[in-house]
Amino acid sequence: MVAAVIFAAAVRLVSCAPAATETLYDMGAEGCLVGRSSACLYPAAATNLPSVGGYSAPSIERIVACKPTHVLVSYLADPSLSNRLERLGIKVVQFPCERLKDYAPMRARLAALCGVRPKRVLAVVQKSPMIVAGRETLPDDILAEIGCANAVTNRTGYFVLSPEARLKLAPEGEVDFSMNYDLTRLGPNLRGEIERLRTRLKDIKDVKDIKDVKDIKDVKDVKDVNGYKDFKDLNGALFRLRLWRVLAGLLVGAALALAGAVLQTVLRNPLADPFILGISGGASLAAAAVLATGLVAVGSFVLPTAAFAGAVVALLAVAAIARAAGGGPVTLVLAGVVSGSLSSAVLMVVLACASSRTLQSVTWWMMGSLQTAEPASLAAAGACIGAASLVMFSQSRALNALALGPDLAQSLGVRTGRVLPLVLGAASLAVAAAVSLAGIIGFVGLIVPHAVRRIVGANHRALLPASALAGGLFLVACDQLGKLFGEVEIPAGVVTALAGGPFFLWLLVRRGRHA
């Protein structure tokens, strides 16, 4: 080892940053690790730790189950993940280790966090007389690279060190830098020399454990060493996380299933889906804009609010286009397709110009995940979905008549000019709230109404409540199924797409045969 560990038992780390994981093992502080992301595969011993899921979007439930005091993340981490962990009392430490100059500060922060003090080593360039390297020299940089501290801290450059000054410095080891070549011309030999220095350092006797944390100097995170707070209510925290996730699944699934049932009736098209009106495209574009501009760092409420606003704007634009084109269900569908295509095109432009971090965040959000649900967003989305559901339930009789066609429904006394905008607006509001809460989750509004219709029939007084219940349970089941794919948690939107794709093709073939 090249360092001494003092407070490793007080710190419990979950690492989602591969560079941080490797560094902890390199400095001998692997005892602090209690979990890692699926990308932390080196050294091989790290794979024995519990996995918390993917690299940029790990599972919060799995992280909390590891009972960490700190979570180490990279610059690609989703900001909403950090915000949620901080609110749970878990500190998040980010390591933007993109360049070589970032490595030494990262190592110093990790050393202080884990209670590891680097060895104070004397860099000897010449033995007689003794010439040593001070700060701002190549040996000083190499010592930092291999996790050691230069014993000389108050001088720069190379200088002669007297025996008295050597005793006063009291270094814990010496490294011979008097190599058989010019230090200024290392060239491609640098990496090999660093590895040889690592081997030499193994012969330096380990220093004793530090007794006082004040011995660690010039490191910002020393205060974090004593910041350990045990998770007294681990079961309660896990219960709350899972409760929010289940409630989100029930709300989103119910909203999408209700909207799908209504749209299939109003448009008289069994292939109709809640996202056919271009709502998802508007929500995706707004979310990508917020992530690309960095506004998401303001708070966790920004992303769902922007997604909801984008969905509402897309809905109003589709309604305006359809009204200008003469109205009617077919015109509304065509306007939705056009709006969705335009939103997708602009979204691709945003993604093409976005940074890698923005690209990761937008891609994950578009997959549709329930783990970002929180009480505030649940309350806001629940209020919108509840209001939209009441409107759709109240129009059950009118929807039964509309299933026969608008002309026949009007002859039965249904005021189609008022009912159609009302139920379409309610369905769109429910979908917009669902998108703002969980991202893009497709096919729930296609699969569930068809399955329920086969069980309870076409009467909307029974069809709508049954669809809402079945949609919520179906999405919760898909979310749970996504946790069974090994280390990486598959988002619920991906699972519904895997189930919905074949179902859509079956419906298409079945409709063609009966045409």
First-to-last CA distance: 76 Å
Helix content: 55-70%
- Which structural class best describes the helix and strand composition? alpha/beta
The description of the largest β-sheet is: 5 strands, mixed
Count of separate DSSP helical elements: 19
How much strand content do the residues show?
Answer: 5-15%
Radius of gyration: 30 Å
The low-confidence runs, each spanning 5 or more residues with pLDDT under 50, are 1-9, 180-188, 204-232
Average pLDDT rating = 79
Instruction: Estimate the global geometry from the Cα principal axes.
Output: elongated
Number of strands: 11
Element-level helix/strand string: EEHEHEHEHEEEHEEHEHHHHHHHHHHHHH
Structure description:
- This protein has 19 helices and 11 strands.
- Helix 8 runs parallel beside helix 13, helix 8 (234-266) crosses helix 17 (444-456) and helix 9 (279-293) runs antiparallel to helix 12 (356-367).
- Strands 7, 8, 9, 10 and 11 form a 5-stranded mixed β-sheet that branches.
- By secondary structure, it is an alpha/beta fold.
- It is elongated, with a radius of gyration of 30 Å.
- The chain has helices at 18-26, 60-65, 79-87, 103-114, 138-145, 163-169, 190-201, 234-266, 279-293, 302-324, 329-353, 356-367, 375-394, 396-402, 406-411, 416-438, 444-456, 460-481, 492-513; strands at 3-5, 13-15, 33-36, 70-74, 91-95, 116-118, 120-126, 131-133, 149-150, 158-160, 173-176.
- Mean pLDDT is 79; it is low at 1-9, 180-188 and 204-232.
- The N and C termini lie far apart (76 Å).
- Helix 1 (18-26) links the parallel strand 2 and strand 3.
